[in-house]
Specification:
By secondary structure, the protein is an alpha+beta fold. It is 32% helix and 17% strand.
Amino acid sequence: MIAKEKNKINRDMGLILKPIYFDQIPLGAIFDAIRKHGYVVVDEAGEPWNGFICGREGRATFDIVSQNGIASKYAL
């Protein structure tokens, strides 16, 4: 992922996550914004992420790969 692509994704994230309260994490909108720029959020096995978030830590990390499967050094 080049800086230009990362900046575009971050700009879209800012539009989705503007300073408002969410009852639920808008994962669909976030993943769609990443997909729009040619990347996919994946699970530990490298498959497109599908599931739910739970845990007491309040943190989760998702790997991002290009749509042709090339790993990115960035994560969500």
